[in-house]
Structures are given as C-alpha cells and as structure tokens.
C-alpha cells in the first residue's frame, strides 16, 4: 500500500459517522472498551469491528490492562485533524446563517 492509498484509508475510516463519534469520544483520553460500549450502545461485535477499522487505519492504539482492552488516539495529529474539520464545518454553518 502506498502513502496515497493509506491516506484514503484514513479518510474512509473517519467518514463513517459511528467511527467519527468514537474518535471524538477518544479525544478526551484513553477509554476502556466497556466505556465505549456504554457511550455508543452498539453490540460488542459491531463496536469491535469499528475499532478494528480505526486501528487498521492507524488512528487508534489498543492496550490490554488487566482484563480490559483500552483504546486511545494514536497521536495528537489525529486530534488536530478532527478539531480542524469541526472548526471548518462551524465556519461553513456560521457563513450560511
């Protein structure tokens, strides 16, 4: 896979509403999968599939802590992307009004 293909993979992963919400939730810090499950009310299998896609795109990291799996955003550059997109959208909506 080349760099352009990997960039597209990142945007595809973020392009799903559920995954984008997961990423925004993780911007506040590391969360165990149980907290993600409480927040999003999806089946464990569905949530795991979304987390796998985010992990495969290099957007999140996971770490086993005791019996729990914890997820966090890979690095602050990812947070910057999310914040920049939200700022951009806010600017568009302000200009529409």
From TrEMBL:
The keyword DNA-binding applies. Pfam families: HTH_5. Keywords: DNA-binding, Transcription, Transcription regulation. It comes from the Bacteria. The keyword DNA-binding applies. Gene3D superfamilies: Winged helix-like DNA-binding domain superfamily/Winged helix DNA-binding domain. InterPro entries: ArsR-like_HTH, HTH_ArsR_DNA-bd_dom, HTH_MetalResp_TranReg, WH-like_DNA-bd_sf, WH_DNA-bd_sf. GO terms for molecular function: DNA binding; DNA-binding transcription factor activity. Residues 1-93 form the HTH arsR-type domain. This is ArsR family transcriptional regulator. It comes from Clostridium fermenticellae. The lineage of its organism: Bacteria, Bacillati, Bacillota, Clostridia, Eubacteriales.
């Amino acid at each position: 896979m080349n760099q352009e293909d990997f960039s597209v993979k990142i945007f595809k992963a973020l392009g799903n509403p559920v995954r984008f919400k997961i990423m925004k939730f993780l911007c506040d810090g590391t969360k165990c999968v149980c907290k993600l499950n409480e927040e999003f009310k999806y089946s464990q299998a569905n949530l795991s599939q979304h987390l796998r896609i985010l992990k495969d795109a290099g957007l999140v990291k996971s770490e086993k802590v005791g019996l729990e799996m914890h997820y966090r955003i890979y690095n602050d550059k990812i947070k910057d992307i999310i914040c920049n997109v939200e700022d951009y959208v806010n600017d568009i909506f302000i200009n529409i009004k």
